Queue: 4 jobs
Job 1
Amino acid sequence: MEDPIISLKNVSVTFCGNEKNVTAVDHVSFDIQKGDVFGIIGYSGAGKSTLARTINFLQRPTQGQIIVNGQSLIDLSAAQLRNSRKKIGMIFQHFNLMNTRTVEENITLPLLHSGLSKVAQREKAERLLKLVGLANKKMSYPRQLSGGQKQRVAIARSLANDPEILISDEATSALDPKTTEDILTILKKLNTELHLTIIMISHEMEVIKSTCNKVVVLNQGKVVENGSILDLFLHPKEVLTQTFIGFGHQNNDVIQSLDLRPKETVIEVTFINSPNEDQAKIVEIIAVLGVPMRIFYSNSQFIQQRVITNLILGIQGNKEQVAKVLRQLKSHRYNYQLTGGGRSY
Ligand SMILES: Nc1ncnc2c1ncn2[C@@H]1O[C@H](COP(=O)(O)OP(=O)(O)OP(=O)(O)O)[C@@H](O)[C@H]1O
């Protein structure tokens, strides 16, 4: 495998307060490969924004190393750091545009000391505006634009210095679902056409799920899961992750509402690709064992052009019979979880 474009090694950020210190980022390590759309998900206060700012050294880590393109940022002089930062664009929830400047001026602002002539700067702005589908708005002011249009301008501006990496910090959080989809489509296009590596920070799994190939889940500054988005859905390790992926919430509701029979145990099975065939196969596997079974609930989601299905079953039998069912599921490579919050009898 190629060397990662970004590598975080044991990074922590502690803010010293008068009353107590806050460790916003706590011993975080992960690698991002070139071309990844890498998601960072966590609730408010989890440390996402601090981590984003740390990745481009706007925030100095208290400890640990950040290596971008093989170069440790801690070793760079202020001038080298400024240069290195140009290779990392950023977009934010509230766009951060200059309201007194036109759209074109907002985009050419980062090019002020680029050495490009005014004409070349304007040409570049025009090219970038075309890329984000706003070619006709270059003389408008931000106040004349919708939220989605403002975010497109912010994206164009973030690309002015030809970055290799784009950090999107909750860039769609202030937008409606349709506009969110439009912005995510633009970001995906930039990833596939310009090979831009994207770090997508969000508290919404819908955003992460529809764009990212990899993801880390952050909780109280710590990475609690790290892997491919498919793995996250197939083998969520943490309850927090299950809550994010939605199965957790829905499944808990379903399980709590079940009217279980005596000796009935609830099992959640998760599988990828063929919802109907797999469901039929699971029914068959259990039927062969002669253990009574009920299907309570089934839910499929599209992730990375694949279908992930979650099935909630009730198995009526003694401990040995349940163990037999689980062994069979395991031998057929189905992921399962015994659930029910103690609601198995
Ligand atoms: N400059 C600062 N000084 C002191 N504490 C800070 C500072 N910046 C962030 N924090 C604290 O660090 C923790 C993580 O904050 P951060 O903004 O990184 O989280 P977040 O996941 O991005 O949340 P949100 O989505 O609400 O912005 C919080 O407890 C926050 O209060």
Job 2
Amino acid sequence: MSWNVNQLLRKYLIMGSQNCPRDPEDILLEAIEGGITAFQFREKGDGALTGEQKIKLGLKLRQICREHSIPFFINDDSELIEELDADGIHVGQDDIPADLLRRQYPDKIIGLSVSSDAELEQSDLSAVDYVGAGPVFFTWTKDDVKPVVGVEWIEKLRARYPDLPIVGIGGINSDNAREVIEAGAQGVAVISAVTNSTAIKETIKDL
Ligand SMILES: Cc1ncc(COP(=O)(O)OP(=O)(O)O)c(N)n1
Ligand SMILES: Cc1nc(C(=O)O)sc1CCOP(=O)(O)O
Ligand SMILES: [Mg+2]
């Protein structure tokens, strides 16, 4: 399937079992009903599954995305691209280089994190389909998170790259998502605002 990148970035749910207070499959299904436009399988951090268990859950979440025509991304782990038949992968500055991935996977959607001018200078943006910009706001969700960049970072990226697909990430919820879009992002990537919500469909509609 071919995807419209600007469109898929609008409401981008990221999640692994470590983020889920209940069954990840149920959370994903509710999020899809609520209107997410992309999903990233990020099994990472304290309590995350590994090995066969990680693959087993990945296969289930992948199947749910396929059945609902939601693009499915892998976080970091390029070995899972083929195993889970992912539509794309998101990598950071310390992960497998994006240009290498592009050569290996010419048809997959590749996202790269950029959080500072220094990271921007060392990034080959021609190899990627979109960038993840953050943390826009403070977040507890990721341990090794970088300093907060604010919506100003998105404004800066947008001014420098008028056509670059950008998704904001970090501490985004239905109260502050508007600021991220107004700063120039195509969409918002969220974990806890959705996984910890007691009314997931409403939360996503509000985003
Ligand atoms: C859409 C999106 N944007 C940014 C990130 C963060 O990626 P990274 O910096 O590699 O950190 P980890 O997620 O791997 O801990 C992301 N995953 N998705
Ligand atoms: C995975 C991740 N990457 C970030 C970055 O800034 O690159 S912030 C983050 C965690 C996002 O979780 P929440 O929506 O709960 O704040
Ligand atoms: Mg990474």
Job 3
Amino acid sequence: MTKGWGNASKSKSPQAWDRRMTVPADAPILTADAMRAAEAACAAAGVSLSELMERAGAAVADVAWRMAAGAPVLILCGPGNNGGDGYVAARLLKARGAKVRVAALAPPATDLARAARAAWDGPVEAFAPDTAPAPLIVDALFGVGLTRPLSDEWSAMLRRFAGRRVLAVDVPSGIESDGLQDWLPPLPAAVTLALGALKPAHLLLPTAPACGRVLLAPIGIDAERRMRTLPPLPPETPTADAHKFSRGMVLVRAGPMKGAAGLSAAAALRAGAGYVVLEDGGPAPLSAIIAEAPAAFRARLDDPRVGAIVVGPGFPAGDALAAAVGEVLDAGKPLVLDAAAIGAALPRLGKGTAAAILTPHEGEFARAFPDLRGSKIERALAAARRAQAVVIYKGADTVIAAPDGRVVAAWPGSPWLATAGTGDVLAGVCGAMLARGGDAFDAAVAAVGWHIARARSIGRGLVADDLVKTAK
Ligand SMILES: NC(=O)C1=CN([C@@H]2O[C@H](COP(=O)(O)OP(=O)(O)OC[C@H]3O[C@@H](n4cnc5c(N)ncnc54)[C@H](O)[C@@H]3O)[C@@H](O)[C@H]2O)[C@@H](O)CC1
Ligand SMILES: Nc1ncnc2c1ncn2[C@@H]1O[C@H](COP(=O)(O)OP(=O)(O)O)[C@@H](O)[C@H]1O
Ligand SMILES: [K+]
């Protein structure tokens, strides 16, 4: 948190994107309802709501102080508690010697915001079309309480400040925080300070990019741990007594597009599987892959050492896929189902089948679960419950969900992954993680983390093969 926030958007450096849009790792995510419940639990435990607002305002003041670096600050306050946080921050910044102006959209409408407004002893301007800007704008207009899009008039007033350095309190105003609506904020933020927990809209498209760099102010709310951001990658070093089968054996079933299954097999090896068998593979991208003809491959399905089977990459829908999926389901081994294999397996999943990870992209998800509605997090969860499987709902805002309600949101990934074949790689990595044994959700989270970390380390010019070619 040093200099450069405000100028990062102008930087042409290839890594600028990663610096501009980051979120804290392994941080809690709460919907507005869950946030209010957590707030009520705090109150019941003896922490007053005004104390929570004081902590929130102090965190805002702290970040604003560093972003302003001595320059004047304009704090825009709305009528609710988001505005209340703004008044608290104004008081604390002034006490530290900052040059602060406050402009209000409307008088405070909650007891907490009124008290915060009363404790601010400076002037309050009316936020109007001619409000003078400042080098740092603190957006404390609306937070999780926004119930409808901002009016055109207010949107135009905010757009006048585009290009200034903007710190958004909780969310950039205009965003619907649960990720249910695609309202875009008129004034995107360089930095968003999430209060108590991250909100779905910080992590889902189309709103996430408008939040800029997201920081978390914990403020003492005891957020439940079921929904999180992507955790740091677990250590990958094999145990000292490892052997190739203890590290996990993965079978990859190939379809007509052999290259795709080859990428999956290579990815499984690179991600740490000790032994990878590719069916009918054509030329395998790594000679350490064991390529086998269909009959020998089928005999492998009964091998008790098999830790996971991958099917779907390069295998379009049709009778051949249906037969292949039927065979792997009969094998009773943990499965990674990608692309059209998801739809083919769906009617049988959850009926006594082994653990499975499904890896649909947007189009495959819509085909497999056409009736699901809600935010991407809600849809991923509903799909996981229906399939009784872990779902990796891919995209720039990848969401991983388990039938028991656990969710990891992986924004921001690496946009270098937006290239053909990277999904085949992810399916193979899932196979490697699943073949280690253990929980399928943890395996899926580790796979997504591996995929993103590898893509970031390669960066510019990445093609899917690069993800699996070398160890580093
Ligand atoms: N929940 C918590 O634990 C905490 C919440 N805090 C702050 O409180 C915020 C939530 O406060 P509120 O629930 O008061 O909600 P907001 O301050 O987000 O906004 C609600 C107000 O805006 C009005 N409003 C909503 N949409 C509008 C629109 N499109 N046009 C005009 N007016 C509109 C509502 O009538 C209401 O007066 C959080 O985002 C956060 O900043 C913090 O003070 C600390 C703790
Ligand atoms: N803009 C992006 N930012 C981050 N990750 C992305 C982006 N676009 C795609 N991805 C990731 O790249 C992979 C693409 O998978 P998929 O669409 O199945 O590709 P393919 O079928 O060509 O292998 C997924 O893991 C997805 O999450
Ligand atoms: K705000």
Job 4
Amino acid sequence: MPTLCSICTTARALVKRPKTGQQVCKQCFFDVFEEEVHITITQGAQGGGSIFERGEKVAIGASGGKDSTVLAHVLTVLNRRYDYGLDLYLLSIDEGIKGYRDDSLETVKQNQAEYGLPLKILSYDELYGWTMDKVVDQVGKRNNCTFCGVFRRQALDRGAAGLGVDHIVTGHNADDIAETVLMNILRGDVARLQRCTAVTTQSEDTIKRSKPFKYAYEKEIVMYAYFKKLTYFSTECIYSPEAYRGYARVFLKDLEAVRPSAIVDIIRSGESFVLDQATQRSMKAMRRFRTSPARANLQKPASAKACALLQGLESGLDRAAVRTTQMAGGEAPEGQRSIPMFERKLRVADGNATEGIERAVQRVEIKTE
Ligand SMILES: Nc1ncnc2c1ncn2[C@@H]1O[C@H](COP(=O)(O)OP(=O)(O)OP(=O)(O)O)[C@@H](O)[C@H]1O
């Protein structure tokens, strides 16, 4: 006697949901997965409303990977089914990584045709004059994610502005968010927990960003893509040595194996984390200090981080300098990772080369959301 779907109780159960352990049929799996994303969208704004406004232009950060491919598919379905009234676009950033991003962008082009969504591709090369291949040649593999992350943030904003878009959505899933919560706790960055678990975030100088897959498990996203036969690119970035996240990921996967609810439980913990009043007061004081006229030059908007890193690259940032900046990380104000010190290390060939870097790293705060 076949096991029946625990939702419709008529069709044969073919899938065990990784998130809940429920045995369900394929159709009910699709329905429940999409419905949960719909709930995140319609209740995810701060205060409880929808993250979208009717008529909004929304760019889907499309990397060609499973998460953003499933996101493009599900948003297209939900936009139609629930008449969100969104104008959807695909926005891809070409980081300039041969043998990786060029291949995944081919997948995005296929998605463009399949979903009938306009696609804009913007490259680091055209924006910054640097590809990640060149950056890695210069700074080595170890720190390259920092450059890539800062550049991508800014590139997505630029691309979105070029499209006249009000809102960017990304495929960050529940596993990504739980990992980030763990990493922030392990670093003592508790001030970040609420922000990193918010569905929607916006700072003064950036376009609104949302994560409709906040509660979608990675395993379910892969299952959804598999059963829907979606086209996606599944290779890991050839330069991604994000060791710290790697440990958090392995730990999370171990926890998930023992107790599947661990992922969502960790997210809930991050959401419920409330700073006590003394900490809030010191954060406020820090904010005032950070925006005082004397500090104004150091408090440039997010785009300045990309500029500062570029300045470093243009000045000939080498591996040794990068290592030094990494080791020099001091106390992080307001829960932010920062690089307040830089031990000067002049290059033999060019006595001025590191000055730009020195200024740059003093100014850069690397948000590790
Ligand atoms: N090159 C890019 N262009 C546009 N959006 C991107 C790009 N890289 C990442 N993103 C966005 O950021 C999200 C998280 O990126 P991350 O690098 O963690 O990849 P991922 O978890 O493997 O996701 P995906 O499976 O979509 O590649 C992606 O789902 C996507 O929405």
